[in-house]
Amino acid sequence: MSVKRDLKTKLLTINMGPQHPATHGVLRLVLELDGETVVNCKPYVGYLHRGTEKLGENRTYPMALPLTDRLDYVSSMANNIGFCVAVERLLGIEVPERAKYIRTIMAELTRIANHIVWIATHALDIGAMTVFLYSMRDREWILELYEMACGARLTVTYPRIGGVRADVDQEFLDHCYKFTEEFPKRVEQYETLIDQNRIWLQRTKGIGVLTAEEAINLGLTGPTLRGSGVPYDVRKFAPYDAYDKVEFEVPVGKVGDVYDRYRCRMEEFRQSNSIIRQCLEKMPSGYVLAADAPGYDMAAGPRKKPAQPSAPKAEGAADTPQPPANQPAEQGPAFEEIYVATEVPKGELGFYFVSDGTGKPYRMRIRAPSFVHASALPKMCEGSLVADVIANIGTIDIVLGECDR
Amino acid sequence: MAQKVATKKAQKIAEEITELFATEIIEIKEFRGQVSLTLKKEKIKEILKYLKEEKGFNHLQDLCGVDYFPLKPRFEVVYNLYNIQERIHLRLKAKVDEESAQIDSIIDLWQGADWHERECFDMFGISFTGHPYLKRILMPEDWNGYPLRKDYPLKGKEIWKGFREILEANLQGGDR
Q1: What is the ipTM of this complex?
Q2: Burial state string for A68-82 with b = 16 or more CB within 10 A and e = fewer than 16
Q3: Which residues in chain B are contacts of A313 at CB distance < 8 A?
């Protein structure tokens, strides 16, 4: 049978989502197909928009904290920590050492929990079902650890501005240690299930390739960027909490395809595990909440400033009569702004605060990694096969709660 | 320690920009070790291009709008830049007034700015000249008003059309 080579076919437009099991939430893609090749891909987001930024402007800082749980609901602890770190830097609050270590443990447990959900759903999408069952078992373990520390499992609100809500007990530390002993074996289990699986390799190698330059230009962060070989990790570049006191490596990929990003995240499992281990060993005793931490009774009106935040560089100058002299100048709305990024499991979570000196943020901007990653989908999908769209959605690791805010 | 070095470097770059684009600078501020430059909006793209190509600020961390309602000029578009090579953070803020709420799009410098600009348009009504597809992104397409403006009430001004249709259908005892 002979087929005419220059046969013209009509482009087919199909709608994928918003209700689709492989889009990880309510993401809608409009795909234009030429046969099986994607010619045009247009993502539509916003189905889960709740106006978190506007809500934040109408609440005091401590009251805005629970909103951040609802952004990326599979790694809520990391979102809380990101918010707290940003507000602490804005208000100039120094966190006690023990709280820093606890938060680092929590952030890394969250990273593991998030990557577990990622490997489970990503493998399920591509066709390896078994991984899902094994990894959900291990996620349960982490959720139990959360429960032990704060009573909640998913939307935790455990970290506080200036520390954490309550100290962890010995039982938690013991269980956590047991977890770090056991978990590397579990990672090996996942790897034996998929690392040499021929279908997995064919579905991931050489798919969704992004060069380092393209990835930076698109604004990608986290393991999605590191898969392309750029070692940008906020934990290393601008350390917060106890990250400057622990040793860890930042795994990077070479080619920048789906497989490399998978390898990066698998390696992060081990690094996170080692960070938790180091934190448990080095954890000092002491308070877990700063003395000047704002509580839930933080007034919405002008806040008192404990220290003089405006001039950190005038150290040598004699500053005896300064505080009374500065008082009248603070009457007007003197805006201060700060952008603080933290490394959440999905990438760089940035909080940009504009403060007018009151207990409420004047502007609370959330730079969500999922939002930026979702915008990279057309670049990755156009020109590839329609089946690879699923692999590409999985590899950028998005959660639509965070994307739509 | 590393923070102080980065701040020094950022200040030096801010000074260089002041020399090159002296007429554009409104204010240079430092707060908690972060240097921010307030600029006029006309040459913002040129300045960003200079920073990206000459100074190595390759990572656009964030782009967002801020509304200072009673003040004039009313809006501000904020660019948070990062130099991955040298680990320097720098913030540019371009003043945009309400009457001509528009600014140059930087989508051909950073592709990642695409959705940020759309969101800024969606939430503040600032339009970006040169953006290929400037449509609402988070709000429904037929939404009235710009939600993150300070004169927009928290609960909104009216019930959205799509919602109203459902409510009315329920009141009339429809098949739901």
Answers
A1: 0.87
A2: bbbbbebbbbbbbbb
A3: 30
